Amino acid sequence: MATPRSNAGTKGVPRQQRRQQILAAATEEFGTRGYAAASLPAIAERVGVTKTLLHQYFGTKEDLYLACLVPVGDRLLDTIRTAMGQDGTTAHTPLRVLQSIFTALEGQREAWFVLYDTSLPADGAAARRAAEYWSAIDALAAGGTAELLRSAGSDDPLDADALTYVWRDLVATLVRWWVKHPDQSPEAMTRRCARLFAAAAALTSDPVDPFR
Questions:
Q1: Average pLDDT in the 38-48 region?
Q2: Which of 12, 17, 97, 140 is the most exposed place for a label (fewest CB within 10 A)?
Q3: Which of 150, 99, 113 is nearest to 35 (CA)?
Q4: Is pLDDT above 60 for 86?
Q5: Each residue of 83-114: b (16+ CB within 10 Å) or e?
Q6: What average pLDDT does the chain have?
Q7: SS3 149
Q8: Neighbours of 169 (CB within 10 A)
Q9: Helix (H, G, I), strand (E, B), or coil: what is residue 60?
């Protein structure tokens, strides 16, 4: 979602307001182009300030990325924890988690790609911080999928591990699809996911074993 150019570069704009304008523009630039291709001059132009002012507010390009990454990572981690904690783990938990992610990203959907950016320098502070968020979110997914399988009668740790991988890729794929369809609200996406899950369950509910 394009950030409209603002008058943040004009005199009289409160520092905190200008800071938020820069972060919004930077999140969009990093989220749509990736860290490696993102341009500080482009971010400055989006906001209507100079590149020098960006450095004054945030330091280096990586410092600015971190300033965008942390609120995104915190928001997603908190919303997933909250969704998983509602009524314990049930068959409805995956939909609750998806709805919470869609809701948390609404208005700034490209922020997902700030958290999951493969172009970050591997030895940098931003990559390390992102990896911490990935690890925490993966741990929640692993716990949730293991509980779901236990409730279905499976204690196989390899089943749980495989389902965690499937879930992680499924969420990323659904978010990417959603970003390409800006007309789809979080509620509409959640209903769509419910239909897809129901269709998948119907396809796998045939008691006939195809490998007999």
A1: 94
A2: 12
A3: 113
A4: yes
A5: bbeeeebeeebbbbbbbbbbbbbeebbbbbbb
A6: 90
A7: helix
A8: 10
A9: coil
CA distance 201 to 205: 6
Residue 13 has pLDDT above 90, yes or no: no
Structure tokens at 176: 């990417």
The DSSP call for residue 208 is S
pLDDT higher than 90, residue 170: yes
Closest of 34, 65, 67, 76 to residue 175, by C-alpha: 76
Task: Using alpha carbons, list the distances in angstroms from residue 22 to 5, 19, 43, 123, 126.
Answer: 11, 5, 7, 25, 18
Contacts of 34 (CB under 8 A, 6+ apart): 113, 117, 118, 119
User: In 10 A of CB 207, how many CB atoms?
Assistant: 4
Tell which residue, 45, 52, 55, 57, has the closest CA to residue 18: 57
Quick: pLDDT tens for 93-143: 999 999 999 999 999 999 999 999 999 999 999 999 999 999 999 999 999
Given a contact cutoff of 8 angstroms between Cβ atoms, the answer to whether 206 and 114 are in contact is no
Average pLDDT of the segment spanning 41-70: 95
